[in-house]
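As practice, study what follows.
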Amino acid sequence: MDLGIAGRRAIVCAASKGLGKACALALAQEGVHVTITARSRDLLEATAEDIRKATGVTVTTAVGDIATEEGRAAALAACPEPDILVNNAGGPPPGDFREWEREHWIRAVEANMLAPIFLIKATVDGMIARKFGRIVNVTSGAVKAPISNLGLSNGARAGLTGFVAGLSRQTVRHNVTINNLLPGPFETDRLRTTMEGAAKANNRSVDDEMAARRATNPSGRFGDPAEFGAMCAFLCSAQSGFMTGQNVLLDGGAYPGTL
């Protein structure tokens, strides 16, 4: 399927590796010129070069923390009129809510709720004026099924989900859609870091811990980031204009509910 977005411009946040990189690569494979952001200059530039070589599109980098005003300003300076915005940021750490102080909550909300909202605010009216816009927020499967030790993430991402539910119904008449993409377990550095902690707690090797985790998923495996990127690209396509305000879950069937 031709997604009909060749020549469009996109900002993809936190895209130097993992799911953000997968989204940027999938869009670039469709002919989208991408601006990618991350905090690490060296890794970001290496990723940009990988995408250029693989696709031939224009790849621009914006170094900075997207959770800060400076990081968002850098992204918008590099791509002031995006047709596509993929909001993404690393999740806050796990733990017991009794151990978290106000500053922990503020950091989580700034990264996983306010940063996407401010980027939407900065770009959505331009999309409306041009009669095309696709916004995808990378959130978490925990929005559907909260994870007990991820309270910071559960709270901040649920706030973003509520905000998007209202705004997305206002923008769709202008061919501007806003949807959320919810990953379950994918083969990323972040997942392996989480598994290292679990392995230590369970007194077994990381490989054994990962094998046990795979076995609990109905698919019997973890997701491939390329699968996630492909879904992101579809949500950004010309064909997805009748789909807005949705929470699209990619988790191998782990969530047991019907809704």
Observations:
- The mean pLDDT is 95.
- The radius of gyration is 18 Å.
